[in-house]
Design goal:
- The complex is a heterodimer of chains A (478) and B (233).
- With 478 residues, chain A is mainly α.
- Chain A contains 17 helices and two strands.
- In chain A, strands 1-2 form a two-stranded antiparallel sheet.
- In chain A, a hairpin with a 5-residue loop joins strand 1 (331-334) and strand 2.
- Chain A is globular.
- Chain B folds into two domains: 1-87 and 164-233, Rossmann fold, CATH 3.40.50; 93-161, no CATH class.
- Chain B contains seven helices and ten strands.
- Chain B has a six-stranded mixed beta sheet, with helices on both faces. Chain B has a four-stranded antiparallel beta sheet with strand order 2-1-4-5, covered by helices on one side.
- The longest helix of chain B has 16 residues, at 177-192.
- The two termini of chain B are 32 Å apart.
- The chains are: A mainly alpha (478), B alpha/beta (233).
- Chains A and B meet through helix 1, helix 4, helix 5 and helix 7 of A and helix 2 and helix 3 of B.
């Protein structure tokens, strides 16, 4: 007997399955490569300057926010992709159980796939991140040069890579992938064997408790935003241990916004379910798309949240960028001695970097929507084949893809606007204190996020909706 | 003699309230070592449900299922899975094999999941494949095999190791008659070696290879016959 033969057999199965579905595997790996590239790049750049303790508090905040949201978008999209993979594998998981596999084996198979894809995505991300950082290092250098270390010596940043940092970065990506695979793994092992063999998914139970929990978490996020804004405005420093415990929530925007987003994420399954019920009967493509999203919350809910995360950050950044004149109080920066100093605000706050970030987030959002739509088409292969057999034209197929992309992006955009405006609402609510990062309502961006981005996603989906993947009907005919 | 498989007044109800469907209703059945029992009946008569319950893939609403002396109702999910790895073999109508594994790897999988080392598991798998005449195709993936070959691999997997019960759900459903007959001959041969078998089939001529035929209708046993004595179908 060997304790390793079971895991080895599962690893072989996981690897072969990933190799048999290269498109889906590449998608998950690419999605996971994004935050890795960001982290690898940041590690190389930040090696020369401790940004967290630096005077450039705004830049550090911006980085935190962008990084956390890229991580959120990647993890959510990966969760959707791994979930779709596990559901398409349902019969295989049933066969595994019929061959004597138990819940551990089924969970193990899905988690091993997540692990492998995390490893590949991590390595690819490091390659990508280092390449981009190397190419753009002169820009970083000009930004970093003014810093001096504690002895007063001027730091001349060099492009250098530390192996240990990169190993940690890959470990981070693997952990992210395992996290994304956790829910699909647990769900896969819960499906009764007979149902899995018949390719039947058990009906999802409505969970009203989830919405209540989601709203509570979102509220907690808002309260923390208020507290953070308040503390920061008054220049109160928390003990380091407490900062760590609060995940750095004192740093005004990033962490509390992510908590608000987590609350929203818990509500999205109910939201897509609601969309399936309230959508008008016509146009038919929209109705079909809404019903499809509602029937597959495991795919649509993380996707809607991913869009909300991307667009929410875009709204926040735009809200900060509309500032073109110094605020009444100027903005607070942390001095070297550890106390806050008042400094006249520069204008505008994040000019060139912001435009790049805006563009990146728009592209990221459209990419997420297209990826999720492709996953949806893969999952709905049988339905599309039936539609085809009933005589649906290619135009119908494109309309369906467009409607699905539009609905998904629009739901995400509306939630993103809510999340993105939350710091502003909190600032207005605690207005009695001067705030270090006063925001304005970015009307133009809001219009673009709610109107243009979903339209672009719909158009892109329509253009890329080629032939449907072969479903059971076609397979049997083949 | 005690049976390898014993079903005692087994009832299975799917759904609840007005949507409830009684798939099996008080069915009793015993299959002895070396015996092959065919189960026949129209669609929806409960044949597949019976097989799922016999293999521990599903649990009865009422009644008792005993396999190789183990009362399945008393086993938790993990022990049920272990029983499937060690004692029970399945053959389904189609899509029987994991597409990412070769024929030999598919046959070795239950043994490896059970902790048998890769090499001895592979040796057992090769022996089982040789017995169904597929030793030379051990390295082929399922989509490189014909329908008949795939079913023979499934039979090899179902009997590899120390199995005592072989459950086959329409194993000839996706095959032409020649390949179907070859598959049934293999099933019969495995049972002649001492394994107990249950064969669900629509076709009377295939049921003729069995020792006994049980007829199901609306979830109940409506008739039983020694194979070949009843001109069913």
């Amino acid at each position: 007997m060997s304790a390793w033969s079971g895991p080895r057999a599962l690893a072989r199965l996981a690897w072969r399955d990933a190799a048999r579905h290269p498109g889906r595997s590449l998608l998950v790996a690419a999605v996971l490569a994004l935050p890795t590239a960001t982290l690898a790049s940041a590690t190389v750049v930040l090696r020369h300057a401790d940004l967290a303790a630096s005077r450039d508090f705004g830049m550090s905040n911006l980085f935190m926010l962008v990084f956390l949201s890229v991580v959120a978008v990647a993890a959510l999209t990966a969760a959707a992709a791994i979930g779709v993979g596990a559901r398409r594998q349902l019969r295989e998981l049933g066969l595994l159980a019929a061959a004597g596999g138990d819940g551990r084996h089924q969970r193990g198979l899905v988690l091993l796939q997540g692990f492998g894809l995390g490893l590949v995505g991590g390595l690819a991300g490091i390659g990508l991140g280092l390449a981009v950082t190397w190419a753009t290092f002169p820009l970083f250098r000009s930004w970093l040069t003014p810093f001096t270390d504690e002895t007063g010596a001027v730091i001349v940043p060099r492009f250098s890579v530390v192996g240990r940092d990169m190993a940690w970065t890959v470990a981070f990506t693997v952990a992210l992938a395992l996290l994304a695979a956790l829910r699909p793994a647990v769900t896969a092992a819960r499906v009764p064997v007979a149902a899995a063999l018949a390719g039947r998914r058990p009906a999802r139970r409505a969970r009203p408790g989830l919405v209540v929990a989601g709203l509570a978490v979102a509220l907690l996020g808002l309260v923390l935003q208020g507290v953070a804004s308040n503390l920061e405005a008054r220049g109160v420093l928390l003990p380091v241990q407490l900062e760590l415990l609060l995940l750095g929530t004192f740093r005004s925007i990033p962490s509390p916004v992510i908590i608000t987003l987590a609350g929203v994420a818990l509500c999205t399954p109910a939201l897509v379910g609601l969309a399936g019920r309230v959508v008008p009967a016509r146009p038919a493509a929209l109705r079909l798309a809404a019903r499809d999203l509602a029937r597959h919350p495991g795919r649509s809910a993380p996707a809607v949240t991913a869009v909300a995360a991307g667009l929410g950050v875009l709204v926040i950044l735009a809200g900060l960028a509309t500032l073109t004149s110094p605020s009444s109080s100027g903005w607070l920066v942390q001095g070297h001695a550890g106390y806050f100093e008042l400094e006249p605000a520069a204008a505008p706050l994040f000019p060139p970097a912001l435009r790049v970030v805006l563009a990146i987030f728009t592209v990221l959002t459209v990419a997420v929507v297209l990826a999720v739509n492709a996953l949806g088409r893969a999952e709905a292969g049988a339905d599309l084949a039936v539609l085809e057999a009933l005589g649906a034209s290619p135009t119908t197929r494109r309309a369906l893809a467009a409607a699905s992309a539009w609905l998904l992006t629009e739901l995400g955009a509306l939630l993103g606007v809510a999340v993105g405006l939350s710091p502003l609402l909190v600032q207005r609510a605690v207005r009695s204190f001067p705030t270090p990062f006063p925001m304005q309502v970015p009307w133009v961006t809001l219009a673009l996020v709610v109107g243009l981005v979903p339209a672009v996603a719909a158009a892109a989906a329509a253009l890329t909706a080629g032939r449907p993947p072969p479903g059971p009907v076609e397979r049997r005919l083949a | 003699m005690t049976g390898v498989l014993e079903l005692d007044q087994v009832t299975k109800v799917y759904g609840e309230g007005r949507a409830a469907v009684r798939a099996l209703d008080g069915v009793s059945l015993r299959v002895a070592p070396g015996e092959l029992v065919a189960v026949m009946g129209p669609s929806g008569s409960g044949k597949s449900t019976l097989l799922n319950l016999a293999g521990g893939l599903d649990r009865p609403t009422a009644g008792r299922v005993v396999v190789d002396g183990a009362d399945l109702g008393r086993l938790d999910r993990r022990r049920l899975a272990a029983l499937r790895r060690r004692r029970v073999g399945y053959v389904f109508q189609d899509l029987n094999l994991l597409p990412g594994l070769t024929a030999a790897e598919n046959v070795a999988l239950p043994l490896e999941l059970d902790g048998l080392g890769t090499r001895p598991a592979r040796a057992e798998a090769m022996a089982a494949l040789e017995r169904v005449g597929l030793g030379e195709r051990a390295g082929a993936f399922p989509d490189q095999l014909s329908g008949g070959e795939r079913q023979r691999v499934a039979i090899a997997r179902a009997v590899a190791g120390r199995r005592v019960l072989l459950l086959a759900d329409e194993p000839t459903g996706a095959l032409d008659s020649l390949a179907g007959e070859a598959v049934l001959e293999l099933l019969r041969a495995r049972c002649d070696e001492g394994i107990a078998g249950v064969l669900v089939t629509h076709e009377a001529r295939y049921a003729a290879v069995a020792d006994r035929v049980v007829f199901l209708g609306d979830g109940r046993v409506v008739d039983q016959a020694v194979a070949g004595t009843r001109g069913a179908g």
